[in-house]
Amino acid sequence: MYFINSIVRNRVHSRAVRVPLFIAALFCFGLVSQQVSAQQQQSLQVGTKVAPPFVLKSDSGELEGISIELWRRIADDAGLEYQFTESELDSLIADTEGGQLDASVAALTVNAEREARIDFSHPFYTTGLAIAVPSRQDKLTAAISGFFSWEFFVALSGLCLLLFAVGALLWVFERKRNAEMFGGTPAKGLGSSFWWAAVTMTTVGYGDKAPVTLGGRIIGFIWMFAAIIIISSFTAAIATSLTVSQLETDVQGVDDLPDVRVATLANSASAIFLDKEDISYNKVSSVSEGLKQLKKGKLDAFVYDKPIMQFYIKRDFDDDVEVLPEIIERQDYAIALPENSPLRERINTSLLRVIERDDWEEVLNEYLGK
């Protein structure tokens, strides 16, 4: 009897213990489900940076462009809530690495240095670095306008002053004994002397005027040899004012970059490439600023992502700057993610669906042209 009572008490106690444990398990499961659901509904922080035509800002301040359109389609396909946060390139990489950003979309190039810090999605656009140079038409215009430059007029004025000084010295000796050629009023005599100095320097030698005094002939003899050196120097001065030196240093490709003035954006893929090739360069704050310096003649070459430069040139510098056809280094654009991001597979799957659709080609054509 005691044994039976003991068994009954144990079963009752076991059931009493199981019921609270079951309730606790259901409660924990509910909490976990709520947390998972909250995480799924939580708005993602997506970093971006203006980099036309991949990220643009409309007049109303709304973001648009290839990368923005791509992310919106991915988010719709994957059911993601998000909000954009604008930042600079360095901050995009650092904040994605630190987890402050759940993703970054712009014109972000996949490279080994960044891959060591963050993860990337599948590439969605393949392009490369290119070199922008002043257009040949613009250089010809600059050469012609050089005739009206301040440097040209300074050189020409200096030469005229020298011719007048030599002519005046000759006139002092010739004005009395060679009055037929250098006589008359001082203005007429100095004018004839100036003419003689000019034709002697240029070796035209018409022979209509010649010195007859000993002093005049000594001056003529010295002037003939001195003029050879002077005319050479003057020719060099004219060549400089007409930017012949720039015309002779046309950039045709990467091999020309070490010998010319180059610029790019700091911490960009193009800066990494130039550092790797040991090519010195200046840093500019934006693509537009670099192309503007190129137009003004302060640079000989600007290195950056080809499609981005083409967009700016077409919009603002169409007649002044051109992009060389050579692609100097391949680039793959992708979406940046924190390392081991749980969103990576979902984003990759949706990304591949989006770029495989026919209407995605229409988006590219809209921003880049066919």
UniProtKB/TrEMBL annotation:
<feature type="transmembrane region" description="Helical">
    <location>
        <begin position="218"/>
        <end position="239"/>
    </location>
</feature>
<dbReference type="Pfam" id="PF00497">
    <property type="entry name" value="SBP_bac_3"/>
</dbReference>
<keyword id="KW-0675">Receptor</keyword>
<dbReference type="GO" id="GO:0015276">
    <property type="term" value="F:ligand-gated monoatomic ion channel activity"/>
</dbReference>
<dbReference type="Pfam" id="PF00060">
    <property type="entry name" value="Lig_chan"/>
</dbReference>
<protein>
    <recommendedName>
        <fullName>ABC transporter substrate-binding protein</fullName>
    </recommendedName>
</protein>
<keyword id="KW-0406">Ion transport</keyword>
<feature type="transmembrane region" description="Helical">
    <location>
        <begin position="152"/>
        <end position="173"/>
    </location>
</feature>
<keyword id="KW-0812">Transmembrane</keyword>
<feature type="domain" description="Ionotropic glutamate receptor C-terminal">
    <location>
        <begin position="43"/>
        <end position="370"/>
    </location>
</feature>
<dbReference type="InterPro" id="IPR015683">
    <property type="entry name" value="Ionotropic_Glu_rcpt"/>
</dbReference>
<keyword id="KW-1133">Transmembrane helix</keyword>
<keyword id="KW-0325">Glycoprotein</keyword>
<keyword id="KW-0813">Transport</keyword>
<dbReference type="InterPro" id="IPR001638">
    <property type="entry name" value="Solute-binding_3/MltF_N"/>
</dbReference>
<dbReference type="InterPro" id="IPR001320">
    <property type="entry name" value="Iontro_rcpt_C"/>
</dbReference>
<dbReference type="GO" id="GO:0016020">
    <property type="term" value="C:membrane"/>
</dbReference>
<keyword id="KW-0407">Ion channel</keyword>
<keyword id="KW-0472">Membrane</keyword>
<feature type="domain" description="Solute-binding protein family 3/N-terminal">
    <location>
        <begin position="43"/>
        <end position="370"/>
    </location>
</feature>
